[in-house]
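Q: I have 380 residues here and want to know how they pack in 3D. Can you give me a structure?
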Amino acid sequence: MDRKYQLEFCKICDNREFSRDKGIICKLTGDIAKFENDCPDFAGDRKQTPYVPQTDSSVDSEENYDFEKTVDGYPTKPIEETKKQSINRSLMSMGLFIAAFYLIFKWDITYILVLAGVIFIHEIGHFLAMRIFKYNDLGIFFVPLIGAFATGQKDTISQRQNVIILLAGPLPGVIIGVILYYFGLRDSSEFLIRTSNIFIFLNLFNLIPVMPLDGGRVIKSMFFENNELINKIFIFLSIAVLTIYSLYSQSYFLLVIPFFLLTQISNQSQVSKVKEGIDKKGIDINKSYEELTDEEYWLIRDEIGTHMKYFNRFITPKRYIIADNEQRIIKQVKAIVQKEPIKDLRVIGKILITLLWIMTFIVPFVMIVIYYIRLGIEIQ
């Protein structure tokens, strides 16, 4: 056992002392730890001590561990804690979103409430579609100045389900916007026309084929879900498009999205290294978290601690003990270990979805042209 692991024992031992020259030492010997595998003089809670898998040199001493282990020599993998999504958290996040817009942009509170309502209707579309397809842990959360997102989990999904869920947000919003536009023209209502503009612009913007917008995710799901090279190229193009738009429109707060995508690229590079390490260990990641064996969990965890900068702060490879941030580690394991989506979209289905996507842009454009033609006739 090296000094790093010995310190894990010493930090929780009642017999520890601190030396200005040597650091943590044992007050019984006045020196740094010298033991292998286990300390015979350890005084403290055995359940907090690090677990070392059985080796020829550790078989005898491991019987002293008060730690639940499976027959393959690894601890039982931790259970994911599921927290029921709270409507109070959703309402609180919406309140922060409204307050941020009011304080920073000084919009009329009426149109800030309209914007929040439009975003909520968009997200409730995603939410209801996920609920129909029996997703778990559903929730809707607002992000100040950016928008909102609907969350949910499911072990096995299909291309068809994924595309329907993605389109269930923007399509109803565009349809509502077009209907409001019609009544706004009929009744010459500036409020309805402005509200319809928010509905149409926000949802059409969301259908632009760039990541992480719904349109980009639809394209990714249909055509290159598992192609990492094309995926990276697509993300770089998305960064360029969103950056140019943010600067051109002086919507500088939107630059947070390209920044997020850049961090995602860095994260994907680290995840690729993790998957390479997992593959070398012969572990199949095309499965759910529940299907992982205890050994597979801890070995995948080792790779995460080795290759991902964020996690190597609290994961020490081959130290098999549950960390304070274990639930966050579980989420990362689940992000890596996923069943591949069922490819149930045929060519004709992809063509129909693409045509629907194109028509979603054409119909509002035609409505706007009609409006200005009518306006020009009235002026004459």
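Q: Anything worth noting?
A: DSSP finds 13 helices and four strands in the chain. The longest helix spans residues 347-379.
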